Amino acid sequence: MKTLTTAAALALAAGFALGGAQDARAKDYLLTGLKPDKLVVVDAAARQVDKVHTIPQAAPGPVTITPSPDGKTAYVVVNRWESVSGIDLESGEEVFRADLSSERERAKVMFGMDISPDGKTLAVYESPVRLELGEYQVLPTRISFFDTGAGKGAQRLRSIPAPRQVTILMYAKDGSRLYGLGRAVHVIDPATGDVIAEHKTQGWDRAEFYPPDILSVWSQWEQAGVFSTPYYTARSDMSLEDPAAYWTGLLTLDLDSGDFKLKEVENTDIFYFSTVVSPTNPDLLYGVYNNLSKLDAAQGKPLGRVELDHSYYAVNISSDGKEVYVGGTMSDIAVYDAETLKKLGSIEMPGGANQALATLRVIRR
Predict the structure, then answer these.
(1) What confidence tens digit (pLDDT) does each residue in 41-87 have?
(2) Which of 34, 130, 302, 308 is most deeply buried (CB count within 10 A of its CB)?
(3) Fold of the domain spanning 206-365
(4) Which pTM was predicted?
């Protein structure tokens, strides 16, 4: 066995040290959108806006934001939900564009969009109508696939049929399945379009509970790799005049294992618009709307709650699980300590612009 020369050993050690330093320097950035046409990159640790990019033909504002796995590009639903724009997060250049509507057909993206784990394919859930002379003819909903390297003027590679009323679209960690949240969680084979399984929600067979109410349009699962959303239900074996009959629960879906869970966590006295799972503890979740709450999904109980300065729609969490970020509406992102729920700071958006329904995503670079 050959031994390393002193110079080679030093070079190798320097390489390891440099790699470690690069990893150590990586940090969290937040992505959000501002009306009418801005994509914002926020330095989370510095508590300040890092970059503001203008998206061409974006009005009335960005909605769903899907970052590439390498954190270099963000794909954004824009143009009245009829286009997807890919923006280079360093230069701000538009490097991808798919305009979904045509002269005879109008297609809308109803929030559902995700990128394959290898970063090569964008999956978009479309609701199309044909434009007739005196009517709109409703067409079957579909999932269309685009090559992320197609540049501007990207065309559909192919489309597959999809269940109606899907609002969230998620790739499994290995890319072998697509999950669509609608009136159930549909498990879809992206190659064939076959619905290979369904996790019941609206059609659940829990005899002691009425079917749940679910509003889920925010794609924020990148830290833990676990999708979550709140649901609201009531006991069917109790009087609906009794406040104790009403329950808030958590739906979780592990995008690696496919494990699906429903768990009631507290009697409903407030509402949450979205939730996020901690990357350090899959049983720990945070929910946001007019309050920020910390919830234990395993034990089915709340762990803490603070009232917020105003309503926030979207919630996300730092890669180390120590900070919680709330945004998605109005003109600021607020930062809270994940353990104590103490407010740590606020990041104001340029010009006081409104985030509206924009997704709040976290990338690390």
Answers:
(1) 999 999 999 999 999 999 999 999 999 999 999 999 999 999 999 99
(2) 34
(3) Methylamine Dehydrogenase; Chain H (2.130.10)
(4) 0.92
